[in-house]
Protein backbone atom coordinates (compact mmCIF):
# COMPACT_ATOMS: atom_id res chain seq x y z
CA UNK A 1 0.00 0.00 0.00
CA UNK A 2 1.55 3.25 -1.10
CA UNK A 3 1.10 6.45 0.79
CA UNK A 4 0.38 9.57 -1.16
CA UNK A 5 2.50 12.49 -0.04
CA UNK A 6 0.65 15.77 0.05
CA UNK A 7 2.77 18.74 -0.97
CA UNK A 8 1.68 22.31 -0.30
CA UNK A 9 2.21 24.76 -3.11
CA UNK A 10 2.82 28.37 -2.07
CA UNK A 11 1.51 30.99 -4.47
CA UNK A 12 3.45 34.24 -4.30
CA UNK A 13 0.31 36.17 -5.23
CA UNK A 14 -1.78 34.85 -2.33
CA UNK A 15 0.73 34.83 0.51
CA UNK A 16 0.32 36.70 3.79
CA UNK A 17 -0.40 40.42 3.77
CA UNK A 18 0.81 43.13 6.09
CA UNK A 19 -1.90 45.17 7.83
CA UNK A 20 -2.75 48.47 6.13
CA UNK A 21 -1.40 50.40 9.09
CA UNK A 22 1.96 48.59 9.09
CA UNK A 23 3.86 50.98 6.73
CA UNK A 24 2.70 54.04 8.68
CA UNK A 25 3.60 52.40 11.98
CA UNK A 26 7.04 51.45 10.67
CA UNK A 27 7.64 54.97 9.33
CA UNK A 28 6.57 56.65 12.56
CA UNK A 29 8.51 54.17 14.67
CA UNK A 30 11.64 54.68 12.59
CA UNK A 31 11.39 58.45 13.00
CA UNK A 32 10.87 58.19 16.76
CA UNK A 33 13.71 55.73 17.35
CA UNK A 34 16.20 57.61 15.19
CA UNK A 35 15.16 60.96 16.73
CA UNK A 36 15.71 59.58 20.24
CA UNK A 37 19.15 58.27 19.25
CA UNK A 38 20.09 61.60 17.63
CA UNK A 39 18.80 63.53 20.66
CA UNK A 40 20.95 61.41 23.00
CA UNK A 41 24.01 61.91 20.79
CA UNK A 42 23.37 65.67 20.60
CA UNK A 43 23.01 65.88 24.38
CA UNK A 44 26.19 63.89 24.92
CA UNK A 45 28.17 66.03 22.48
CA UNK A 46 26.48 69.29 23.58
CA UNK A 47 25.42 69.90 19.98
CA UNK A 48 22.19 71.13 18.40
CA UNK A 49 19.56 68.55 17.51
CA UNK A 50 19.15 68.29 13.72
CA UNK A 51 15.56 67.26 13.01
CA UNK A 52 16.05 67.21 9.23
CA UNK A 53 18.90 64.71 9.47
CA UNK A 54 16.93 62.59 11.95
CA UNK A 55 13.92 62.41 9.62
CA UNK A 56 16.15 61.59 6.64
CA UNK A 57 17.97 58.75 8.42
CA UNK A 58 14.69 57.47 9.88
CA UNK A 59 13.17 57.36 6.39
CA UNK A 60 16.13 55.36 5.07
CA UNK A 61 15.75 52.93 7.98
CA UNK A 62 12.06 52.63 7.09
CA UNK A 63 12.93 51.76 3.47
CA UNK A 64 15.12 48.90 4.66
CA UNK A 65 12.64 47.64 7.25
CA UNK A 66 9.62 47.67 4.95
CA UNK A 67 11.48 45.62 2.35
CA UNK A 68 12.78 43.06 4.84
CA UNK A 69 9.47 42.61 6.68
CA UNK A 70 7.46 42.49 3.44
CA UNK A 71 9.91 39.92 2.02
CA UNK A 72 9.44 37.69 5.06
CA UNK A 73 5.64 38.03 5.21
CA UNK A 74 4.44 38.71 1.65
CA UNK A 75 7.17 37.40 -0.59
CA UNK A 76 9.64 38.89 -3.02
CA UNK A 77 7.14 40.44 -5.48
CA UNK A 78 5.23 42.42 -2.88
CA UNK A 79 8.46 43.37 -1.10
CA UNK A 80 9.82 44.88 -4.31
CA UNK A 81 6.57 46.74 -4.87
CA UNK A 82 6.61 48.17 -1.36
CA UNK A 83 10.27 49.16 -1.69
CA UNK A 84 9.62 51.15 -4.86
CA UNK A 85 6.61 52.83 -3.22
CA UNK A 86 8.67 53.72 -0.16
CA UNK A 87 11.43 55.18 -2.36
CA UNK A 88 8.87 57.46 -4.03
CA UNK A 89 7.66 58.54 -0.59
CA UNK A 90 11.29 59.08 0.45
CA UNK A 91 11.84 61.47 -2.45
CA UNK A 92 8.77 63.45 -1.35
CA UNK A 93 9.97 63.54 2.26
CA UNK A 94 13.43 64.75 1.18
CA UNK A 95 11.76 67.57 -0.76
CA UNK A 96 9.92 68.58 2.44
CA UNK A 97 13.00 68.48 4.69
CA UNK A 98 13.97 72.17 4.21
CA UNK A 99 10.42 73.22 5.14
CA UNK A 100 10.37 70.91 8.18
CA UNK A 101 13.76 72.20 9.33
CA UNK A 102 12.69 75.81 8.83
CA UNK A 103 9.42 75.45 10.74
CA UNK A 104 11.09 73.51 13.56
CA UNK A 105 13.85 76.13 13.93
CA UNK A 106 11.42 79.05 13.88
CA UNK A 107 9.11 77.43 16.44
CA UNK A 108 11.91 76.51 18.84
CA UNK A 109 13.60 79.92 18.55
CA UNK A 110 10.40 81.99 18.49
CA UNK A 111 8.51 80.50 21.44
CA UNK A 112 10.60 82.27 24.16
CA UNK A 113 9.09 85.65 23.15
CA UNK A 114 5.73 84.41 21.85
CA UNK A 115 3.84 85.96 24.75
CA UNK A 116 1.09 88.49 25.46
CA UNK A 117 3.51 91.41 25.72
CA UNK A 118 4.82 90.69 22.23
CA UNK A 119 1.30 91.14 20.79
CA UNK A 120 0.17 94.04 23.00
CA UNK A 121 3.06 96.52 22.93
CA UNK A 122 5.30 98.29 20.45
CA UNK A 123 9.02 99.06 20.53
CA UNK A 124 8.57 102.70 21.51
CA UNK A 125 11.19 103.72 24.11
CA UNK A 126 12.36 100.09 24.35
CA UNK A 127 16.13 99.64 24.17
CA UNK A 128 16.79 96.22 25.67
CA UNK A 129 14.44 93.60 27.04
CA UNK A 130 10.67 93.81 26.58
CA UNK A 131 8.70 95.46 23.83
CA UNK A 132 6.63 93.80 21.17
CA UNK A 133 5.55 93.81 17.55
CA UNK A 134 2.03 95.22 17.75
CA UNK A 135 2.99 98.20 15.57
CA UNK A 136 4.50 95.84 12.98
CA UNK A 137 1.47 93.53 12.94
CA UNK A 138 -0.92 96.47 12.49
CA UNK A 139 1.30 97.92 9.75
CA UNK A 140 1.45 94.58 7.93
CA UNK A 141 -2.34 94.15 7.98
CA UNK A 142 -3.00 97.75 6.85
CA UNK A 143 -0.43 97.79 4.04
CA UNK A 144 -1.30 94.31 2.76
CA UNK A 145 -5.03 95.04 2.99
CA UNK A 146 -4.67 98.22 0.94
CA UNK A 147 -2.51 96.36 -1.60
CA UNK A 148 -5.28 93.77 -1.92
CA UNK A 149 -7.89 96.52 -2.46
CA UNK A 150 -5.75 97.88 -5.29
CA UNK A 151 -4.73 94.58 -6.88
CA UNK A 152 -7.91 92.48 -6.79
CA UNK A 153 -10.15 94.75 -8.92
CA UNK A 154 -7.35 95.53 -11.41
CA UNK A 155 -6.24 91.91 -11.72
CA UNK A 156 -9.77 90.48 -11.94
CA UNK A 157 -10.94 92.99 -14.55
CA UNK A 158 -7.78 92.41 -16.58
CA UNK A 159 -8.33 88.66 -16.58
CA UNK A 160 -11.98 89.14 -17.59
CA UNK A 161 -10.88 91.29 -20.52
CA UNK A 162 -8.26 88.76 -21.64
CA UNK A 163 -10.68 85.82 -21.50
CA UNK A 164 -13.96 87.35 -22.61
CA UNK A 165 -13.06 90.34 -24.80
CA UNK A 166 -9.35 90.38 -25.57
CA UNK A 167 -8.40 89.76 -29.18
CA UNK A 168 -5.55 91.01 -31.32
CA UNK A 169 -2.37 92.96 -30.51
CA UNK A 170 -3.67 94.65 -27.34
CA UNK A 171 -4.51 91.36 -25.63
CA UNK A 172 -1.15 89.89 -26.66
CA UNK A 173 0.64 92.98 -25.33
CA UNK A 174 -1.19 92.79 -21.99
CA UNK A 175 -0.34 89.09 -21.66
CA UNK A 176 3.31 89.83 -22.45
CA UNK A 177 3.58 92.61 -19.86
CA UNK A 178 1.82 90.52 -17.23
CA UNK A 179 4.41 87.79 -17.80
CA UNK A 180 7.18 90.39 -17.49
CA UNK A 181 5.71 91.75 -14.25
CA UNK A 182 5.63 88.24 -12.81
CA UNK A 183 9.42 88.12 -12.89
CA UNK A 184 10.10 91.64 -11.56
CA UNK A 185 12.33 91.57 -8.45
CA UNK A 186 10.54 92.89 -5.39
CA UNK A 187 13.13 95.58 -4.75
CA UNK A 188 12.44 97.04 -8.19
CA UNK A 189 8.77 97.44 -7.21
CA UNK A 190 9.88 99.30 -4.10
CA UNK A 191 12.18 101.57 -6.09
CA UNK A 192 9.38 102.30 -8.56
CA UNK A 193 6.96 103.30 -5.79
CA UNK A 194 9.65 105.44 -4.12
CA UNK A 195 10.54 107.20 -7.38
CA UNK A 196 6.88 107.74 -8.27
CA UNK A 197 5.90 109.38 -4.99
CA UNK A 198 9.16 111.29 -4.72
CA UNK A 199 8.37 112.94 -8.06
CA UNK A 200 4.70 113.52 -7.23
CA UNK A 201 5.33 115.13 -3.85
CA UNK A 202 8.82 116.57 -4.57
CA UNK A 203 10.09 114.90 -1.41
CA UNK A 204 13.20 112.72 -1.81
CA UNK A 205 12.81 111.40 1.74
CA UNK A 206 9.18 110.35 1.52
CA UNK A 207 8.16 107.29 3.52
CA UNK A 208 4.57 106.21 4.14
CA UNK A 209 2.44 103.07 4.22
CA UNK A 210 0.41 103.70 1.09
CA UNK A 211 3.61 103.67 -0.95
CA UNK A 212 4.31 100.19 0.39
CA UNK A 213 0.81 99.11 -0.67
CA UNK A 214 1.46 100.38 -4.21
CA UNK A 215 4.77 98.49 -4.32
CA UNK A 216 3.12 95.26 -3.13
CA UNK A 217 0.28 95.70 -5.61
CA UNK A 218 2.81 95.60 -8.46
CA UNK A 219 3.78 92.14 -7.24
CA UNK A 220 0.20 90.99 -6.59
CA UNK A 221 -1.46 92.07 -9.83
CA UNK A 222 0.27 89.58 -12.17
CA UNK A 223 -0.46 86.71 -9.77
CA UNK A 224 -4.14 87.69 -9.55
CA UNK A 225 -4.35 88.08 -13.34
CA UNK A 226 -2.78 84.72 -14.09
CA UNK A 227 -4.75 82.74 -11.49
CA UNK A 228 -8.08 84.40 -12.36
CA UNK A 229 -7.46 83.98 -16.08
CA UNK A 230 -6.91 80.25 -15.72
CA UNK A 231 -10.05 79.88 -13.60
CA UNK A 232 -12.18 81.82 -16.09
CA UNK A 233 -10.89 79.78 -19.03
CA UNK A 234 -11.99 76.47 -17.52
CA UNK A 235 -15.63 77.61 -17.30
CA UNK A 236 -17.44 75.56 -20.00
CA UNK A 237 -18.49 77.56 -23.05
CA UNK A 238 -21.83 75.74 -22.95
CA UNK A 239 -22.79 77.80 -19.90
CA UNK A 240 -22.08 81.04 -21.74
CA UNK A 241 -23.96 79.88 -24.85
CA UNK A 242 -26.96 78.82 -22.78
CA UNK A 243 -27.06 82.26 -21.19
CA UNK A 244 -26.77 84.01 -24.55
CA UNK A 245 -29.57 81.82 -25.93
CA UNK A 246 -31.87 83.14 -23.22
CA UNK A 247 -31.15 86.69 -24.33
CA UNK A 248 -28.85 87.60 -21.43
CA UNK A 249 -26.28 90.24 -22.43
CA UNK A 250 -22.59 89.39 -22.26
CA UNK A 251 -21.74 91.59 -19.28
CA UNK A 252 -24.55 90.07 -17.23
CA UNK A 253 -23.51 86.57 -18.30
CA UNK A 254 -20.01 87.27 -16.98
CA UNK A 255 -21.39 88.70 -13.76
CA UNK A 256 -24.06 86.05 -13.06
CA UNK A 257 -22.69 82.89 -14.70
CA UNK A 258 -18.94 82.97 -15.38
CA UNK A 259 -17.69 84.58 -12.17
CA UNK A 260 -19.93 82.57 -9.77
CA UNK A 261 -18.82 79.35 -11.49
CA UNK A 262 -15.13 80.16 -11.03
CA UNK A 263 -15.33 82.09 -7.75
CA UNK A 264 -13.69 79.31 -5.72
CA UNK A 265 -10.55 79.26 -7.87
CA UNK A 266 -10.45 83.05 -8.08
CA UNK A 267 -10.71 83.42 -4.30
CA UNK A 268 -7.97 80.82 -3.81
CA UNK A 269 -5.65 82.61 -6.25
CA UNK A 270 -6.29 85.98 -4.59
CA UNK A 271 -5.62 84.59 -1.13
CA UNK A 272 -2.39 82.94 -2.27
CA UNK A 273 -1.26 86.18 -3.93
CA UNK A 274 -1.73 87.97 -0.59
CA UNK A 275 0.29 85.26 1.14
CA UNK A 276 3.01 85.69 -1.50
CA UNK A 277 3.54 89.43 -0.86
CA UNK A 278 2.90 89.65 2.87
CA UNK A 279 6.47 88.56 3.62
CA UNK A 280 8.24 90.99 1.27
CA UNK A 281 10.92 93.07 2.98
CA UNK A 282 12.91 95.00 0.36
CA UNK A 283 10.13 97.16 -1.14
CA UNK A 284 8.69 98.03 2.28
CA UNK A 285 12.10 98.88 3.66
CA UNK A 286 12.55 101.39 0.82
CA UNK A 287 9.18 103.13 0.67
CA UNK A 288 7.42 102.38 4.01
CA UNK A 289 10.54 102.70 6.15
CA UNK A 290 10.67 101.57 9.76
CA UNK A 291 9.63 103.03 13.09
CA UNK A 292 9.14 102.01 16.70
CA UNK A 293 5.83 103.83 17.10
CA UNK A 294 2.25 102.87 16.35
CA UNK A 295 0.92 104.34 13.11
CA UNK A 296 -2.62 103.73 11.86
CA UNK A 297 -2.48 106.26 8.99
CA UNK A 298 -1.37 104.82 5.66
CA UNK A 299 -0.91 108.29 4.18
CA UNK A 300 1.34 109.87 6.80
CA UNK A 301 4.73 109.03 8.27
CA UNK A 302 6.66 105.80 8.37
CA UNK A 303 4.98 102.49 9.08
CA UNK A 304 6.56 99.30 10.41
CA UNK A 305 5.77 95.87 9.02
CA UNK A 306 6.59 92.39 10.29
CA UNK A 307 9.24 91.54 7.65
CA UNK A 308 11.04 94.84 8.28
CA UNK A 309 10.66 94.31 12.04
CA UNK A 310 12.37 90.92 11.79
CA UNK A 311 15.13 92.41 9.63
CA UNK A 312 15.84 95.38 11.92
CA UNK A 313 15.82 93.25 15.06
CA UNK A 314 18.28 90.81 13.53
CA UNK A 315 20.52 93.30 11.70
CA UNK A 316 20.75 95.97 14.43
CA UNK A 317 20.97 94.24 17.81
CA UNK A 318 21.83 96.16 20.94
CA UNK A 319 24.16 95.20 23.75
CA UNK A 320 21.99 92.23 24.73
CA UNK A 321 21.99 90.43 21.38
CA UNK A 322 19.83 87.48 22.45
CA UNK A 323 16.90 89.73 23.35
CA UNK A 324 16.83 91.17 19.84
CA UNK A 325 17.20 87.74 18.25
CA UNK A 326 14.30 86.38 20.31
CA UNK A 327 12.08 89.21 19.07
CA UNK A 328 13.18 88.54 15.49
CA UNK A 329 12.36 84.83 15.73
CA UNK A 330 8.99 85.60 17.36
CA UNK A 331 8.20 88.00 14.51
CA UNK A 332 9.16 85.34 11.95
CA UNK A 333 6.92 82.80 13.71
CA UNK A 334 4.02 85.28 13.68
CA UNK A 335 4.52 85.89 9.96
CA UNK A 336 4.54 82.15 9.21
CA UNK A 337 1.33 81.67 11.21
CA UNK A 338 -0.36 84.48 9.26
CA UNK A 339 0.68 82.89 5.94
CA UNK A 340 -0.53 79.48 7.11
CA UNK A 341 -3.85 81.02 8.16
CA UNK A 342 -4.22 82.63 4.73
CA UNK A 343 -3.59 79.30 3.03
CA UNK A 344 -6.16 77.59 5.25
CA UNK A 345 -8.66 80.34 4.43
CA UNK A 346 -7.97 79.76 0.72
CA UNK A 347 -8.70 76.04 1.14
CA UNK A 348 -11.93 76.76 3.02
CA UNK A 349 -13.06 79.27 0.41
CA UNK A 350 -12.36 76.79 -2.37
CA UNK A 351 -14.35 74.09 -0.59
CA UNK A 352 -17.29 76.33 0.32
CA UNK A 353 -17.73 78.10 -3.02
CA UNK A 354 -16.75 75.30 -5.39
CA UNK A 355 -19.62 74.12 -7.64
CA UNK A 356 -21.52 71.17 -6.18
CA UNK A 357 -21.55 68.54 -8.95
CA UNK A 358 -23.16 65.73 -7.01
CA UNK A 359 -26.94 65.28 -6.74
UniProtKB/TrEMBL annotation:
<keyword id="KW-0812">Transmembrane</keyword>
<dbReference type="InterPro" id="IPR005672">
    <property type="entry name" value="Phosphate_PstA"/>
</dbReference>
<dbReference type="InterPro" id="IPR035906">
    <property type="entry name" value="MetI-like_sf"/>
</dbReference>
<keyword id="KW-1133">Transmembrane helix</keyword>
<dbReference type="InterPro" id="IPR051408">
    <property type="entry name" value="Phosphate_transprt_permease"/>
</dbReference>
<comment type="similarity">
    <text>Belongs to the binding-protein-dependent transport system permease family. CysTW subfamily.</text>
</comment>
<comment type="function">
    <text>Part of the binding-protein-dependent transport system for phosphate; probably responsible for the translocation of the substrate across the membrane.</text>
</comment>
<keyword id="KW-0813">Transport</keyword>
<feature type="transmembrane region" description="Helical">
    <location>
        <begin position="51"/>
        <end position="73"/>
    </location>
</feature>
<protein>
    <recommendedName>
        <fullName>Phosphate transport system permease protein PstA</fullName>
    </recommendedName>
</protein>
<feature type="transmembrane region" description="Helical">
    <location>
        <begin position="206"/>
        <end position="225"/>
    </location>
</feature>
<dbReference type="InterPro" id="IPR000515">
    <property type="entry name" value="MetI-like"/>
</dbReference>
<feature type="domain" description="ABC transmembrane type-1">
    <location>
        <begin position="137"/>
        <end position="346"/>
    </location>
</feature>
<feature type="transmembrane region" description="Helical">
    <location>
        <begin position="85"/>
        <end position="112"/>
    </location>
</feature>
<keyword id="KW-0472">Membrane</keyword>
<keyword id="KW-0592">Phosphate transport</keyword>
<feature type="transmembrane region" description="Helical">
    <location>
        <begin position="328"/>
        <end position="350"/>
    </location>
</feature>
<feature type="transmembrane region" description="Helical">
    <location>
        <begin position="132"/>
        <end position="162"/>
    </location>
</feature>
<feature type="transmembrane region" description="Helical">
    <location>
        <begin position="174"/>
        <end position="200"/>
    </location>
</feature>
<keyword id="KW-1003">Cell membrane</keyword>
<feature type="transmembrane region" description="Helical">
    <location>
        <begin position="21"/>
        <end position="45"/>
    </location>
</feature>
<dbReference type="Pfam" id="PF00528">
    <property type="entry name" value="BPD_transp_1"/>
</dbReference>
